[in-house]
Design brief:
CATH class of the largest domain: Alpha Beta
Bound molecules: S-adenosylmethionine
Number of helices: 12
Number of domains: 2
Largest sheet: 7 strands, mixed
Low-confidence stretches: none
Helix content: 40-55%
Shape: elongated
CATH superfamily of the largest domain: Vaccinia Virus protein VP39
Structural class: alpha/beta
Length: 287
C-alpha cells in the first residue's frame, strides 16, 4: 500500500469504498505524511512497544505506527471502516483491528487478549467529541490496575483542551482537568497542528500532547476521592473564593476552611485557580 496520508491516496480510498465522513464520530482524517510521522516520532514508540491506537480511521497513522512499533492494536467504532482497514493494512501483519467503542472497552481485557506483559503506549488522533472521557477513562482504569497497563499517551486533541490539560496554576485554563491529569501523569504540550492537514478540515484548532504515566502520584493524600471532590467544589464557581465555593458545594463550615488555608499559609480570599495540586492535597487531608 502507498502512503495513505496524502490527499490523493485518501480520496482514492474513500471513493473505492464509497465512504462518507460521519460527523458524529469526529471523523477528520490526517492527509499530511510529515505530520503523521512527526506525531509517531515524538511518541517515542520503538519495536519493543505495543501501541494502542484509538480510532484508526482508514489506517493513516496505523500504517506508520506499524513501521515503528512491535505491535499495534487499533480500536475503531465505525463498522463501515473495518473492510477499509482490512484493505489498507493488508501489508501490516503486526496490526490487529477491533471494531468497538473505546469507551466500552476495558483496558485490562485489551491487554490480556492482545498484548504481552508490556504496558501500552497510546498514540492517536482522537475523536474530539469524547477526548476527556477517553483520557480520564484510560488514566483511572490504569490507576485501579496498579498502573501496569499504560506507559504513555501521545494524542492529537482540540487545542483548547490541550491548553487546559497542560495549564499551570493562576491561568484561566487551569482547572479540574489540569489537576486530574497532573495527579496521574507528567503532561507536556508538544505541538500545534494546522486545520489544513485534515480531511475534512475541523472547525477548531488542534494540538498534540504527551502524558507520561507516573508510577506514583506526585502528592501524598489520605483519601483520593475526597481530594477530587474538593477540587471539583473549588472550581464549581470559579469567580468565588475557595472558601465560598467549597462551603456552598460540600456543606463544610467556613471556619474549618479558613483554618485549613491558614495551615498552608494562604489567606481566606484565595481562589481555587491559584492552588497547586500539592496544596489541594494538604487541604483535603486537613478538612
Ligand atoms: N486516525 C485517523 C487519522 O488520523 O486520520 C482518524 C482519526 S479521526 C479524528 C477519529 C477516529 O475515531 C475516527 O475513525 C472515528 O470513527 C473513531 N472513533 C470515534 N469514536 C470512537 C469510539 N468511541 N471508539 C473508537 N473509535 C472511535
Amino acid at each position: 500500500m502507498n502512503i495513505i496520508a496524502t490527499p490523493s491516496s485518501t480520496k482514492e480510498i474513500l471513493d473505492r469504498f464509497g465512504f462518507s465522513f460521519k460527523k458524529k464520530f469526529g471523523q477528520n482524517f490526517l492527509i499530511d505524511e510529515n505530520v503523521v510521522r512527526k506525531i509517531v516520532r515524538i511518541s517515542g514508540v520503538t519495536v519493543d512497544d505495543t501501541v494502542l491506537e484509538i480510532g484508526p480511521g482508514i489506517g493513516t497513522m496505523t500504517q506508520i505506527l506499524a513501521e515503528e512499533a512491535g505491535n499495534v492494536l487499533a480500536v475503531e467504532i465505525d463498522t463501515k471502516l473495518i473492510p477499509v482497514l482490512e484493505f489498507t493494512l493488508a501489508d501490516c501483519p503486526n496490526v490487529t483491528v477491533i471494531n468497538n467503542d473505546i469507551l466500552k472497552c476495558k483496558l485490562k481485557e485489551l491487554s490480556d487478549s492482545y498484548n504481552s506483559e508490556k504496558p501500552f503506549k497510546v498514540v492517536a488522533n482522537l475523536p474530539y467529541y469524547i477526548t476527556t472521557p477517553i483520557i480520564m477513562g484510560l488514566l483511572e482504569e490504569n490507576a485501579v490496575q496498579n498502573k501496569k497497563l499504560l506507559s504513555s499517551i501521545t494524542v492529537m486533541i482540540q487545542k483548547e483542551v490541550a491548553e487546559r490539560i497542560t495549564a499551570k496554576p493562576g491561568t484561566k485554563e487551569y482547572g479540574v482537568l489540569s489537576l486530574a491529569v497532573e495527579y496521574y501523569t507528567k503532561p507536556s504540550f508538544l505541538m500545534n497542528v494546522p486545520a489544513n492537514v485534515f480531511m475534512p478540515r475541523p472547525g477548531v484548532d488542534s494540538a498534540v500532547i504527551g502524558l507520561e504515566i507516573l508510577k506514583e502520584p506526585p502528592v501524598d493524600v489520605k483519601d483520593e476521592k475526597k481530594l477530587f471532590r474538593l477540587i471539583k467544589a473549588a472550581f464549581a464557581q470559579r469567580r468565588k473564593t475557595f472558601i465560598n465555593s467549597v462551603s456552598g458545594v460540600l456543606n463544610v463550615d467556613k471556619s474549618v476552611l479558613r483554618d485549613a488555608l491558614a495551615a498552608i499559609d494562604r489567606g481566606e480570599s484565595v481562589r481555587g485557580e491559584v492552588l497547586t495540586l500539592e496544596e489541594f492535597a494538604k487541604l483535603s487531608d486537613f478538612i
